[in-house]
Please model this.
Amino acid sequence: MNPAQKALWYIESHLAEPLTLDEIAAIDGISRFHMVRAFASATGFSVMRYVRVRRLTKAARALAAGALATTLGVAASAPIPKFHSKTGSKRARKIAKAASPAAGTVTPTDATRGKVALFVTCYGDRNEPHLPEDLTAVFEHNGIPVKVVGKEKCCGMPKLELGDLERRRREEPPP
Model:
C-alpha cells in the first residue's frame, strides 16, 4: 500500500479516536510533510480536512438514523431549526449599511428620534436570521437608523433551555 492508502485505512479504523497528523504519518514511517503531499495528491484533501469531513458525514448519518431520539431523547418528529451560515447579524448589517451609510449618525425627524441598537443573539444569528434582517428593514424604511451590536455576551438562554439552571446562576452577573 502507498502512504495515502495506509493513511486512509488508519483514519477509517480510528475515526472515533483523537487523531493527529504526526500519528497518521508515523503509520507509514514518513514525515508529516511527506504525508501531507502524498495524501493531498491521492485524495485532493488535506489529511485533517479529510478526517473532519468523514467525522461530520458519520455524525450526519447517525442523526438521520435516529441518534437524536436515542442519544438525546429528542422525538424523531420534533422540528429541528435549519442552520444558516449567513448569519442574521451579517444580513442586518448589510441592510443597515445600504440604507444609511452613516449608520452611527442620527438625524432627528418630527416623527421619530434616536436610533436602534440591535442585539441579534445566537438564536437570531443562526436559526432565524430573517428576523433581524426583517427588523432592520422595517426600522430603516421608517427612517430609524440601526446599529447591529457586535461581540455580544451570552444571555444564558441556551443554558436555561437545556435546564442547566445551576450553571446559569453561577454565570449570572451581580445585580
Q: What stands out?
A: Strands lie at 116-118, 146-148. The CA atoms of residues 106 and 114 lie 6 Å apart. The longest strand covers residues 116-118. The longest helix spans residues 47-64.
